[in-house]
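Interim report to the steering committee. The following record documents the input for Arsenate reductase (119 residues).
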Amino acid sequence: MEIWINPACSKCRSALTLLDAEGADYTVRRYLEDVPSEDEIRGVLDRLGLEPWDITRTQEADAKELGLKEWPRDAGSRGRWITALAEHPKLIQRPIITADDGTAVVGRTDEAVRDALSR
């Protein structure tokens, strides 16, 4: 199990606290320092069953600068979104937990973190 975190994020810290309390075996990836490649983002999106715009923090300054709210959300624009996430990792929703069964969850709630643990 791997968890993508920003240590400054309270949701990430809560997820780590819960994982520790449950005795989970996991690896921490500080994705702002160890930026995921476009291929890694595609892989996580496949595991999540989501599209890039579903995990994009559209309220971030970078998102507003890029005008992401106006970008099309369709198959033809998917690559453009993934490139933006790779170039601006602050835009990636957090924390993302990759579960041992090959799936992933966005662990913003205790329920989502427990869901990842149960997989």
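The chain has a mean pLDDT of 96. The committee is asked to note this result when reviewing the revised timeline.
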